[in-house]
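Q: Entry one of two.
A:
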Amino acid sequence: MKIRSDIIKVYKDVHIWIGIVCGLMLFIAFYAGSVTMFEKPLERWATPPSTLAAAPSLERADALVEAVLAEHPQAAARYFISVKPGADQPARVYWQERAGGRRQFKEYGASFGADGSLQVEQTRKAPVVQLVDTLHQLVGLPFPDAIARPVMGAVALAYAVALVSGLIVLLPTLTKDVFALRIGKNIKRMWLDAHNALGLFSLPFHLVIALTSVVFAFHDPFYGAQGAVVYPGGIEWNEAHDDAPTGARVLPAAELLRRVEVQLPGFDVQGFGFQRKDGHVEATVTGLDVRHGTRARLYASTHLDPYSGQVDPHDLPGHMDGWNGAVNAFFMLHFGSFGGNPVRWLYVLMGLAGAALFYTGNLLWVESRRRKRKGPETPAQKLSGWVLGCLTVGVSLGCVAGISASLAATKWLPALVADLKAWHTGIYYAVFVAAIGWAFLRGASRGAVELLWLSAVFTLAIPLSSLAGVWGIGGAWSHAGSWPVDVTALVSVPVLLYIARRTRLRLQQGHTDSIWAQTSPNPV
């Protein structure tokens, strides 16, 4: 296939400049997204122990609901019965109450004490998991959702354009370069080979992530247009189950569970949601069928008649019509919510490879603009290359170190401070900004080595904090079964140290006329 050189140049410029403008934000999105692939184990690991008594049996859940509604009538607006309480959600019954702002809520859980009295506590879910997910969703921007989300959408759209333009640039040399990885003194050639291989072999994954991110960012306008064009008369829901027979009573939770399991074999029920309005109750059932992917990471939900136990399955994967099934498939490909843990690990690796794709793209830009030595003196590098090198190191490793530092603080903060969300956010951004400043102070080469060491230290602190919890040091804690998070962090430490070692060798043995040299003249 022959493509004119001037066309290739245009697409190459588009690819390069989109990468320069958006690459660092995309690095944060992909790295944080890799961490969120195991959101549930991480949430369990990070949630402090509850002060509630052990959850009563499901057969006693209805009595617990009545006790909660008697003392907290506002809970009737929306409450949940958990089928399988766990370390991250120990209450059998929980609900939310408005806490000031339009979207600000406090969540509470309830149980029965040993004497049969009602026990209530504000749930203690660790906000660090939500922090990492927010970094992923908003490409690391510390702005309100209304500002950051459209920016994320624009970045995702530009990212899709960069993927297509990069493929067009690669086409003329595709058969020659696709399997090449030339490791040697030509560092630029090596990084280009790695960049091309990462981009080409993960292209379908990246296209799905880019396009679904655009939908997530602009879903309100999209759904508004869909409502006007596809459903001009409004969406018609099957609400026959909302009409309760005269004198009907809501079925007990245990009976609801039995009836749902008969209707939905293979669907692992997590809980039931209820709303009481004017003496009438509406309900939903939430759970997961691992045979089908979902448009959310960890659950699927649909309508349930609480009086008969009849499920309306049209919202559940495996029961959807063609259009909704296609939309669901699009979403599940973004979240990796199919195939269980093997697919989640694959998405972790693809996410990290994506982060490496953006990192190597910036390195290529810097290396391609390196002023080469033509005499005895080492030339000063361009200011633009020096700045981008420092930003690449500071932003990328600042994100890695910041997330690890905030996670490591999880076991200690609840015993020391009240506003956990503010502290976790503050720790992340303090480390992130400090890392950027350090990279500019020390230069890209030395800063990279030192920030990699720092990232390894903060990552090692994650399992050490769990160990402190086992020994009961300083108010820390450790849940049984939280070892996957600790083991993953332990495995990451030697990887970070290895990268630090290779980076140090590069600055000692690589081109002396580069910003990656150990001693580089000040940029001009």
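Q: Entry two of two.
A:
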Amino acid sequence: MPVHPLTLSRRSALALSAGGTALAAMPAWARAAANDHADLATAIDAFVQQAMAAFPDQPALSVAVVRDGQAILTRGYGVRKMGEARRVDDRTLFAIASNSKNVTAAGLAMMVDEGKVKWDEPVRTYLPGFTLSDPVIGERITVRDTLSHRAGFGLGAGDLLFWPNSDRSREEVMARVPFVPIQDGFRAGYHYCNLMFVVAGEVLAAASGQRWEDFVQDRILDRVGMTDTVPMASLADPQKSALPHARTGPPLRYQGPMRPIADSIAAIWNWDSAAAAGGICASAVDWSKWIAVRLAMGALPDGSRLFSEETAKEMWRPNVIVTSSEGPTAALPGRAIASTYAMGFQVQDYRGERLISHGGGSPGGISATMLIPGRNIGFAVFSNAEESYLLRALRSGITDICMARTDFDWIADSVRRDREGIEKSLAAAVEIDAKQAAGAAPSLPLSAYAGTWRDPWYGDITIEARTTGRGRNARTGLYLSFTHNPALQGPLEPYDGEMMRTRFPDSREEDAFITFEIEDGRPVRATVKGVSPDIDFSYDYQDLKLTKV
């Protein structure tokens, strides 16, 4: 995922960001810990507990650390649901979201080894008739491109086809792919794109003769011995899962107190239609086995191989630059000279060494996988809340412990950034409400905006006039519905002139501004954007181009 200013949303879970001012240094014992398995596990365990103490609203974490092919730490911390006593352990399931992407890439690597797929073969070789809104790109896009975020789509393009929980099947999502707009040149730059991983999953299905989830279960999870893990959130037993938590306001999403937001992972995160991009739920014990396979370049403990060393190396070969800079400074000790994306993993320099990583974010959960191949060490952190600065502290702090670096206090720096981010977001919320209070009235009666509004890739959004109350208490207002996302339904209020804003009753979701274009005295077109400055990128409202039907 691209590097953005860190905010209280899942977007920050998908990029390794370093920075801030060095405060108190990491304890000195962390330096020696990197030389011994037991000491390293003890140091990381202590650091995780310190981090959780600094972020007391975090319900639970699960951590897996692997060194030299051995799981030296797998542990759960905290409770599966706030207000309840049941604790998580190293077998508890967490939504790992976009960490699923490197599993999809590995499945395609297996097909490459079997001669059934070629990385640089066009997608339409395996999916005849495949095309995109730019037919030239549709003709040329390859399997490698689908795994590298370089097709030319904008950030999060097409995510509303499955986010938030949608009623569309995978087949229906694929049918809409040719209509999703492309905003950049082909292979011209990096834009995080879940949609193309859905396509990659369908290439895997076509090449293997199995549905993505069946291939992952039969050919990967079963063979690696990942007995807890499920390929889709709908298969995650709530009794074995860490339940999602988030801040849902007031005044805006990502603000206010932490609270449980669902009684199962799938209730808020059902990506079965996009499972290849983010559907897997895993335990620390199981993910430690996966980390061991990735560090062993595809080799399994019994001496057999899941995929070849050649394809393992190819999956880590950079395909597109994510960011570049002048490198680390005293204030930015982990800043990369070059951060790149390969296939299902981000590859960068970190403190002079190669770091392979990926993040994952779902409503109510974030995760990270970090591999340091030069040290044969890898670790993962799973969370059941959206405390993104806590994850930042753990990502970089544990990496530093593994590298015997003690010159930066990631916990204190992340706490400071968290506090500053909250202050900025609360100020923005006040400004948003003030603008509405001072806003001009719409130029037309509210009933004029009612009707069916259609977007070429999403489909229909309906707006209807609704009257509530009786007699003198009767009030007429507008009600908006995204027809394929049940949670995105609620009142539509005047904001400023031809701009209106939603008020979705489901506070777990993000409100939107809708701006209408008037021609000949009637609204004919409309554009959409998010209300909150911290909005998650998967609410890709900005790609909607609505026309009144």
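A: Comment on entry two: The two ends are 36 Å apart (CA to CA). The first strand starts at residue 60 and ends at 67.
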